[in-house]
Amino acid sequence: MKAHATGWRLSIGRLAKGFCNLLSIDIGWAACIMGASHGYHWLGLIVVPILFIIHITLIETQKIRTVFTVALITMGIGFFADTLLVVLGTVEPKRWIMPPPFIPLWDLMIWANFSLALDVSLRYLQKKPFAAAILGAVLAPGTYFAGDRLGALHFAEPIALNLVWVGMVWFFVMPGLSLMSRYYYHRQNDDDGGCR
Fold first, then answer.
1. Can you count the helices (H) and strands (E) in the chain?
2. If you ran DSSP here, which 8-state letter would residue 127 be given?
3. What kind and span of H or E run contains 87?
4. Do 186 and 179 contact (CB within 8 A), yes or no?
5. Most distant CA atoms of the chain, gap in Å
6. pLDDT tens across 79-89, in order?
7. Which end of the chain is less crowded, N or C, counting CB atoms within 10 A of the terminal residue's CB?
8. Shortest CA distance to 156 belongs to which of 107, 63, 99, 89?
């Protein structure tokens, strides 16, 4: 009976962490996008670090170095992915500090913010790279399109073709991020027989 109650408590705890994580990611994304679209490009640079502090305090108290390592690598991957989309003429973000074709700092904050989901709400993708690729290809274009509608970036015409380009880039980006986060968060667990 005690084991059953403990199992329920663990499941509810995981669900609560996952929900809080998704809410945090949405808040960070909205701060970056809405800030850029209204000329407050710095807003993401304030909100996302606060979300990092909350994340470390509530979820990853024992893995602070890993959280920042994964964030930096995610920002690096994001820098190249979104700069590639700019070079291809797919999207043009609202400019702030960084010259074209490089992405602005508020966009880098979106990637840092997204890194916080890789071992919480998106953890199940760490052992499913093909599912990660499909999910990235299907869902990422919608977030970019939302950014366009909200005024933080601009899609070139034809929009449908450029959404396909975004999906193609994310087909490779998402499994790369998932495998990278598995490596950094679960190296020891993998040595002991798998990601727990």
1. 6, 2
2. G
3. helix 64-87
4. no
5. 62
6. 999 999 999 99
7. N
8. 89
Kindly tell me if the per-residue pLDDT of 31 is higher than 60: yes
Q: What is the mean pLDDT of residues 95-113?
A: 94
What are 155's strand-pairing partners?
A: 91
CB count in 10 Å sphere of residue 150: 14
The pLDDT tens digits for 36-76 are 999 999 999 999 999 999 999 988 778 899 999 999 999 99
Return the ∠ at Cα 44 (arms to 163 and 91), rounded to 5°. 20
- Which tokens in the block code for residue 159? 């929009």
Which structure tokens are listed for 14? 């995981």
Q: How far is CA 91 from CA 43, 147, 162, 174, 180, in A?
A: 21, 10, 8, 19, 26
In the predicted structure, residue 123 carries a pLDDT above the cut 50: yes
Q: Give the whole-angstrom CA distance, residue 81 versus residue 169.
A: 7
Beta pairing partners, 92: 154
pLDDT the model gives residue 60? 79
- Please give the Cα distance from 95 to 164 (Å, whole number): 23
User: Which DSSP state fits 119?
Assistant: T
